Model the fold of this input.
Amino acid sequence: MFTIENEWLKVDILSKGAELTGIFNKKFQLEYMWNADPAYWAKKSPVLFPVIGALKDDTYFFENKSYKLSRHGFARDMDFSVFKQDKESISFNIESSTETKQKFPFDFRFEINYSLQENSLKVEYVIKNTGKGKMYFSVGGHPAFKLPLAEGLSYSDYYLEFNRSEIAGRWPISKQGLIEKEPTPLLEDNNHLPLTKKLFEKDALVFKHLRSTSVSLKSSKSERGLSFDFTGFPFLGLWAAPNADFVCIEPWCGIADSIDSNQELTQKEGIYETDTGEVWSRSWLLTLF
Done:
């Protein structure tokens, strides 16, 4: 376990998966992260790389070869190394290996940087193509925040508020974890989404290309909540396990395969590419109040 902290926050991260496991607000004496109760979901904030969600038949094709890769990729199960740390920031990395190239035939260095800025936590993903030729990948976050945040409140006392009004449907997920062909209506020219456990009965809410760049978790009955800036992430997932007391806010550069995917990696929806030696990065910002 590694810890960074400042006057406001104390943040804990595991080396396995470089997974965020605790965000404690010292001013409010309040933990914001889900407790990873294995009866519901035993993770807190897995990192999704080099794919997000499910592949069709857990398989993709690249240069006339097939590769097997399980949902959300392999980074969340790997041991990361710390290559830089001070009191308020820490940087982890993994690199490609013989083992990873059996599933993902590219040379890479993947860094995750955590840094504190007063009552905010910045999480940055940095991906470098260390091989020859183009590399294709997706990356994203999956942090889970506990609900309720205040004693005496219930899950349904909370709502999500986008920073812009949205006309956006949710993209349904098939039983195989694939994205269906058409969205179903959800946000009808508004920015307010009440939270209920029933909302996630049919898996995650998946959004594509929202106008908003941030979303806030709030309650009319409490001042405690959070704001999540996902600028630069074209896809957003919202999820909770059945009847669990948390909500995940998931910024994605990439998305699960569609039900009619041809499984070609270079043609995958939301896939990113980098050239030899190129460095690519994105970051999200969590502010606690």
Notes: The helical segments are 98-101. Residues 2-288 form a domain with the Beta-galactosidase; Chain A, domain 5 fold (CATH 2.70.98.10). The chain has one domain: 2-288.
